[in-house]
Design a protein that fits this description.
16 helices; 78% helix; 0% strand; mainly alpha
């Protein structure tokens, strides 16, 4: 911890470097294409760098040339992966596999949205195994998104649903490519590390379902609904993680863990009554945690 740079100093000296990212997001939200948004972000980099002396001295011909070379090298790997995904998408389009898969999911789920989402989740994880996130997502857009949209899910929620599971396939056994790096550092077994990764990222498997059943999380709907849904969802995710790992403000006994998981379920599920139940459970747990921590400090004093 002592080796970490100061957050306030870092933000004060280099916080302006977030401006290009804000430009990209703003242009995307305005409805422009992704390539145009990226171009605007690149254009915003140059004036942004000139804003501060700490970054201004980096703007010279040698550094700009090195940055362009690094960008081209990094783009090659992504381009190759996307090219392979493009071949797969072409095969899907020419053979009609996407239409067949959509019909298969609808038939197997009997038009049940939750069952169709579970099937799509499993298919997305399997299809994304062993692939980088970008080509995995591109392939799933062609194969899985139409099935979800067919059941009345908004296009934005459907894309975010498959995008999340394209990412989570990297930590999901049996392949779990991202786990190999952690496995080398920890020295634990591959399966042990894989299931530990799943446990740590369990909330990530729930968030895509929240996008579908609570589209206000994607800024769709009335402002009041967006704010309340986002706040309760964040609280629910925090409580779920705390309940699974047995720690919020201090160590949690089993009954507090059960209450935290219950509160998380109530808060994640959209609805005023479920939110009130979730808040009630959370208040009980937080009060108990505060008293337990105060008692522990008094005992050690």
């Amino acid at each position: 911890r002592s080796e970490l740079p100061s957050l306030s100093v870092t933000l004060r000296e280099q916080g302006h470097l977030f401006i290009p990212l804000a430009v990209i997001i703003g242009v995307l939200v305005s409805g422009f294409s992704a390539p145009f948004s990226a171009l605007c972000g690149i254009a915003a980099v140059f004036p942004t760098v000139l804003l501060r002396k700490s970054t201004r001295h980096h703007l010279n011909f040698a550094n700009m040339t090195a940055a362009l070379v690094d960008g081209a090298r990094n783009a090659v790997a992504v381009a190759l992966a996307c090219g392979c995904a493009g071949i797969v998408i072409g095969v899907i389009a020419l053979t009609g596999l996407g239409i067949d898969f959509t019909a298969f999911v609808l038939k197997l789920s009997q038009n049940s949205l939750i069952l169709a989402l579970i099937l799509t989740m499993l298919a997305g994880i399997v299809l994304g195994m062993g692939m980088p996130t970008t080509p995995a997502y591109i392939m799933q857009v062609a194969l899985l998104v139409p099935a979800v949209v067919k059941l009345g899910v908004s296009v934005e929620a459907a894309h975010m649903f498959v995008f999340y599971f394209a990412i989570l396939s990297a930590i999901t056994p049996p392949v779990a490519l991202a786990v190999y790096a952690a496995n080398g550092l920890s020295g634990a077994g591959l399966w042990e590390s894989g299931w530990a990764a799943v446990k740590l990222g369990l909330t990530g498997y729930i968030i895509p379902f929240m996008f579908v059943f609570g589209p206000s999380l994607l800024l769709i709907g009335e402002p009041v609904t967006i704010v309340t849904t986002t706040v309760t969802a964040i609280c629910g995710v925090i409580l779920l993680a705390a309940g699974l790992h047995g720690y919020l403000l201090t160590h949690a006994p089993w009954w507090q863990r059960v209450l935290m998981v219950a509160a998380a379920v109530f808060l994640i599920k959209p609805g005023i009554y479920t939110d009130l139940l979730g808040v009630a459970c959370a208040v009980v747990v937080i009060a108990a945690q505060i008293m337990s921590r105060a008692a522990a400090r008094s005992a050690s004093a």
